[in-house]
Amino acid sequence: MASFNPVRRVIAFNRVTPEGYFSDADGGLDWATPDSEVDARAASSIPTTGTGTILFGRRTYDLFESFWPHALDDSRTAPDPHREGRRSESIRAMGTFINAADKIVFSRTRKAVTWTNSRLVREFDPAVVEELKAKPGNDIIIFGSGSIVSLLTRRGLIDEYQFVVSPTLLGSGRPLFDGKGKTLRLELFEAKGFASGTVLLRYGRAR
């Protein structure tokens, strides 16, 4: 998912449907297909040194804040936020990374942020992201946050898109992209299918 680089990349990681929805109409994610292989791969890509950085829009931050600070206990596993009753060591590794990461949330409506290592930016400012990219460190991750993904895409600030496509058609939902951008050609880095029917697609901007 991420790595340490002299110049940091911005990676958008999203579970999506084949229609391009990243949540249902109510913001729910219980349609995402559970897959231990996908979880293990994500856990194996967690940086072993340094601190991660995650960018959020307000809605995704609210969802993460309501779950992850309370999800880790003394167990070797952690609960799956997408599927009640499911737990794994890989999910715990992801939760540990998320809780420890520096978290930047772009929001006009949040009055404050109290989750560990969180910083509130009142207006979306691409200069904030450009400054982060210019510093050595681990790659910068965006989970969900369709509004921020769209804004960063229009400014050419996302270096890699990672889509975990679930074999589910929702019929309606929230599209990841807002439809206001220009055509962007992408280069396929990887396409990998899993036994669950889930497909991982990794794309970068075409050169």
Architecture blueprint of SSEs:
Blueprint: E1 4-5, E2 10-16, E3 21-23, H1 36-44, E4 53-57, H2 58-67, E5 78-79, E6 87-88, H3 89-100, E7 102-106, E8 118-121, H4 126-134, E9 137-138, E10 140-143, H5 146-154, E11 160-165, E12 174-175, E13 186-193, E14 199-205
Helix pairs in contact: 1-3
- What is the general shape? globular
Number of strands: 14
Main sheet: strand order: 8-7-4-10-2-11-14-13
In round numbers, the mean pLDDT is 92
Largest sheet: 8 strands, mixed
CATH topology: Dihydrofolate Reductase, subunit A
CATH-scheme architecture: 3-Layer(aba) Sandwich
Query: What's the CATH H-level superfamily name?
Result: Dihydrofolate Reductase, subunit A
Number of domains: 1
What order do the helices and strands follow? EEEHEHEEHEEHEEHEEEE
Helix content: 10-25%
- β-strand percent reads 25-35%
